[in-house]
Design a protein that fits this description.
The complex is a heterodimer of chains A (469) and B (208). With 469 residues, chain A is α/β, with parallel strands linked by helices. Chain A has 15 helices and 19 strands. Classes of the chains: A alpha/beta (469), B alpha/beta (208). Chains A and B meet through strand 2, helix 2, helix 3, helix 5 and strand 8 of A and helix 3, helix 4, helix 6, helix 7 and helix 8 of B. The complex binds iron/sulfur cluster.
């Protein structure tokens, strides 16, 4: 009798070329994604060493981090910052020279790397997907095994060999059961999980998100949850493929079709964790306990229900945590005990690989409709495909009528690599995944939340419980 | 990659918890080219902690104190290097001249990147790390030793602390072995794997 396997164990085992029980296994990489940020270092080194890309068809390059969200038509020539322009142009040159397909500045399928993989059907269950980005776990929402890698050494290794040395992590199943309340979304679920287990809470583990709440979520919602696995310290986050997954993939441009589809589907059906599979760790949460969340500190674990208050460091036991929270509040310019709802904000950003898919834009538009933004607010769709779909539904009109900017797909103000950033001391309501010091610009004060909550903040000018709007 | 064997160097205590990679290399420096041999990333290592808005060194920051000049070892707070996967964080660490980090825990991706770049990260229990930190604070600028072959850290007071490291990783660090070269020795196995894969997963045969 064989041991009942988890989804993660099964997919991992399928990719082991050279096992090394005590150390790192040599794994086969089915597909790898390359973006422009930092990766020029990998190509430079490969060129110097005379390495070729061993399997160029298995790689896809995408420009997203440094691309301007305005004046797309004239980019990259119009990118004012010479270093940014150089980075954008370097990927184009490198992709061409090494024979990799590139969704560059003007490609109709261009978008944020973690948005386009799934939406094109390029990401599929059971595939091992490497990407030089810490939010690679997004692809795990379809039951792929996502592995984040470094932008130079590790990327160079994957490109030159199509393999990766990795130590197998432990498994951690996080189950969420029950129905979510009104205006409570996948973003609130994942923030609640991170607040519960902490930013290092899942280090060394591959997380499987399970339970009826996850099963009831759309693929977009599961992507939002998986996306932020790294914010709990887990490099890998996955969710079992099911009917929702198959419906999502069917007919997508790069998904298998015809006889291939049937064979692929039969394989995907075998992947979910066996009911008797054992995980190294388990955590169970009740969906009805999850409220709309906002962050108040400088780590995603510093998040609370919007009905809460800024914590008082004095009431925190544990000196390490106390001093960290005090430092975070100092940076965030917040006074202990202040109700979270009502904190004034200066800007709203709706975008990023966490929350810029069509469903996110629909949710935000539903809140915004018929109202006006009272602070500067911007919507940056996750991909050019999302942008076109949103325009076909008229979502752009809703945002524009409310005074939002409607921009071109890129990472934009998520990390500020393209120059979209907050001024020092500016406070944002943002649908992104990180509120680290300086993440959205030097001295920027970031509150992360769901699209509905960010939209609510835009129309009131302060952190707002969207349920009371 | 430079081999790592045994290192005796000035050790600096960096007693900040959860110092993430965005603080090790602020995002705005990520597009900095890194020419071989120039240590281009040394300047940006912990930039916003080391320098004020006028680019002047912050005198109170530990690494700016003269006795830590040339520190080759950092003793860090827990979760050092958590956050984004930016490999530039490992480059900056290396370019700054740090070859070994000792802490109770590290960001996973950062740790992997460091090891790939010849920077050894050592995990020791928090009480041991706190003890080392105290010794360094009491005798600023003192040296200590990291001995990879014997897998021990020798504290300034002479006490030794054993650490664990994956055997493969250890061997490569010791020899300064490049990962691609090691892997390509397995090319026949990789090709056999691909052949089997095409049979088992026929819908992927166009690709693989
Ligand atoms: S949207 Fe943000 S988190 Fe996602 S890939 Fe881009 S910069 Fe990274």
């Amino acid at each position: 009798m064989t041991t009942p396997l988890t989804l993660f164990d099964r997919v991992w085992a399928r990719h082991v070329i050279v096992p090394h029980p005590q150390g790192e296994d040599l794994l086969y990489v089915d597909k790898n994604l390359v973006h422009e940020g930092g990766t020029f270092l990998a190509f430079d080194q490969m060129r110097a060493e005379g390495h070729k890309v061993r399997k160029p068809r298995q790689a896809l390059a995408v420009t997203d981090h440094y691309l301007p969200s305005t004046n797309r038509a004239t980019a990259p020539a119009s990118i004012a910052h010479p270093e940014i322009r150089r980075v954008v142009e370097a990927l184009d040159t490198n992709a061409r020279e090494f024979g990799i397909e590139h969704y560059g500045v003007h490609h109709p399928r261009q978008g944020i790397i973690h948005v386009i993989g799934p939406e094109l059907g390029w990401t599929q269950p059971g595939l091992l997907i490497a990407c030089c980005d810490s939010h690679t776990a997004t692809h795990g929402a379809l039951g792929a095994l996502p592995i984040p890698i470094g932008q130079s050494n590790q990327l160079r290794h994957v490109l030159a060999t199509q393999t990766l040395w990795q130590k197998k992590p432990n498994t951690f199943r996080i189950s969420i059961n029950g129905a979510l309340g009104a205006h409570v979304s996948a973003k609130d679920v994942i923030l609640a999980i991170i607040a519960h287990i902490g930013i290092g809470g899942a280090v060394g583990h591959a997380v499987e998100y399970a339970g009826s709440t996850i099963r009831a979520m759309s693929i977009e919602g599961r992507m939002t949850s998986c996306n932020m696995s790294i914010e709990a310290g887990a490099r890998i986050g996955m969710s079992a493929p099911d009917d929702t997954t198959c419906r999502y993939l069917h007919g997508r441009p790069l998904a298998p079709s015809g006889a291939d589809w049937d064979q692929a589907l039969a394989y995907w059906r075998t992947l979910p964790s066996h009911p008797d599979a054992r995980f190294n760790r388990e955590l169970s949460l009740d969906a009805s306990d999850v409220a709309p969340m906002v962050s108040w500190g400088t780590s995603p674990e510093d998040s609370s229900p919007i009905t809460g208050r800024v914590p008082d460091p004095a009431s925190i036991t544990g000196s390490e945590k106390r001093s960290r929270v005090a430092r975070a509040l100092d940076y965030m310019k917040l006074t202990p005990g202040t109700p979270l709802a009502g904190i004034r904000i200066d800007r709203v950003f709706i975008g990023s690989c966490t929350n810029a898919r069509i469903e996110d834009l629909r949710t935000a538009a539903a809140v915004v409709k018929g109202r006006k933004a009272v602070v500067p607010a911007m919507v940056v769709p996750g991909s050019s495909t999302v942008k076109r779909a949103a325009e076909a539904e008229g979502l752009d009109k809703i945002f524009l009528a409310a005074g939002f900017e409607w921009l071109d797909a890129s990472c934009s103000m998520c990390g500020g690599s393209n120059g979209d950033s907050l001024a020092p001391g500016q406070r944002s309501a943002s649908t992104t995944n990180r509120n680290f010091e300086g993440r959205q610009g030097l001295g920027a004060l970031t509150h992360i939340m769901s699209p509905a909550m960010a939209a609510a903040a835009a129309v009131t000018g302060w952190l707002t419980d969207v349920r009371t709007l | 990659m430079q081999p790592f064997t045994s290192l005796t160097a000035i050790a600096a205590p960096l007693d900040i918890a959860k110092l993430d990679t965005g603080m090790i290399v602020p995002g705005r420096f990520q597009r900095l080219p890194r020419r071989p041999g120039y240590n281009d990333y040394a300047r940006v290592f912990l930039h916003d902690l080391r320098f004020d808005e006028q680019e002047q060194p912050c005198p109170r920051f530990v690494l700016n104190q003269p006795w830590y000049h040339g520190a080759g070892i950092l003793v860090t707070g827990p979760d050092f290097g958590c956050g984004s996967s930016r490999e530039s964080a490992a480059y900056a660490t290396l370019d700054f001249g740090v070859r070994a980090l000792i802490g109770a825990s590290f960001g996973d991706v950062y740790r992997g990147n460091c090891m790939q770049n010849g920077v050894l990260t050592i995990v020791l229990p928090q009480p041991v790390v706190s003890g080392l930190m105290a010794q360094l604070q009491n005798a600023p600028g003192i040296a200590m030793t990291v001995d990879l072959p014997r897998q021990i850290v020798i504290a300034p007071d002479g006490t030794t602390h054993a650490f664990d490291i994956d055997a493969t990783r250890k061997e490569r660090l010791l020899k300064g072995l490049d990962d691609v070269g090691v892997t390509l020795q397995h090319l026949p196995q990789i090709e056999a794997f691909e052949a089997q894969y095409r049979t088992d997963m026929p819908w992927l045969k166009q690709l693989i």
